[in-house]
């Protein structure tokens, strides 16, 4: 028995969630966090403020983990939005004041 496709029905097959891509984006985000931490380290070392090394290490850890978590959440949301069965999640939003086409 063959299945018929109704006219106007959504034939988009949702893609599966790919955790490996999320892991890669987490590593990319951590790399960005390392670059930001190096910048912060250079900036803080050239200021007259005295900050303990342990606090600086905690600050660098927070920056790196925040950027890693941020990039992983962005990729997760992108994949979930792409695989949503509702068409409203996949269409681009129009700008306010512009008519929809």
Secondary structure: elements and pairs:
Blueprint lengths: L18 H27 L7 H30 L19
Account of the 3D structure:
By secondary structure, this protein is mainly α. The protein has 2 helices and no strands. Helix 1 runs antiparallel to helix 2 (53-82). The two termini are 38 Å apart. The protein is elongated, with a radius of gyration of 22 Å.
Q: Which key features would you list for this structure?
A:
101 residues; 2 helices; single chain; mainly alpha; 0% strand
Helix segment count? 2
Low-confidence segments, given as residue ranges, are none
Query: What summary fits the major beta sheet?
Result: none
Helix and strand sequence: HH
Rounded to the nearest angstrom, the distance between the terminal CA atoms is: 38 Å
Number of E strands: 0
Radius of gyration: 22 Å
- Mean of pLDDT: 83
Overall SS class? mainly alpha
- Proportion of residues in extended strands: under 5%
Instruction: Give the % helix.
Output: 55-70%
- Gross morphology is elongated
What is the structure about, briefly put?
The chain is an all-alpha fold and 101 residues long. The protein is built from two helices and no strands.
């Amino acid at each position: 028995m063959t299945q018929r496709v109704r006219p106007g029905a959504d034939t988009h097959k949702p893609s599966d969630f790919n955790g490996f891509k999320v892991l890669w984006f987490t590593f990319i985000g951590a790399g960005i966090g390392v670059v930001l931490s190096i910048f912060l380290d250079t900036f803080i070392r050239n200021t007259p403020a005295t900050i303990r090394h342990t606090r600086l290490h905690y600050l660098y850890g927070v920056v790196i983990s925040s950027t890693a978590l941020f990039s992983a959440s962005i990729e997760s949301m992108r994949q979930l939005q792409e695989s949503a069965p509702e068409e409203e999640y996949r269409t681009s939003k129009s700008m306010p004041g512009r008519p929809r086409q």
